[in-house]
Amino acid sequence: MTDYTVSSGNIFADLGFTNAEEKLAKVKLASLISDLINERQLADEEVAIILTIDVSQVTNLKNGRLSGFSLEKLLGFLVALGQNIYIMVSPKAETVSSGTIKVVRQSCA
């Protein structure tokens, strides 16, 4: 029988990375940005103009190389792509040791 560990839902936390919540949030934001780019069938050059970044940075973004992008920058990209950002702050549950960051895409209804 194969041994395995059940994921916490955050691969970065499971692997022991510091700032695991932030890293996962960045990945989720980048994924949303990539989805929007694909939905609109935008060429990398068009994306670079919209986001005011170099085409090489667009490539990095789309390939998940996110070290050069802060959470703030990624949020700004979503705004540039016509998305609204809502930030909600709420107390953590008493049974949980630390707070969390969650990224959720709300669809238009």
Automatic annotation (TrEMBL):
InterPro entries tied to this protein? HigA2-like_HTH (IPR039554), Lambda_DNA-bd_dom_sf (IPR010982)
Please provide an example of a Pfam family that matches this protein in its UniProt record.
HTH_37
Residues in HigA2-like helix-turn-helix domain copies: 11-90
Q: Which SUPFAM superfamilies match?
A: lambda repressor-like DNA-binding domains
Q: What is this protein called?
A: Transcriptional regulator, XRE family
Q: Which domain of life is it from?
A: Bacteria
| GO MF, one annotated term | DNA binding
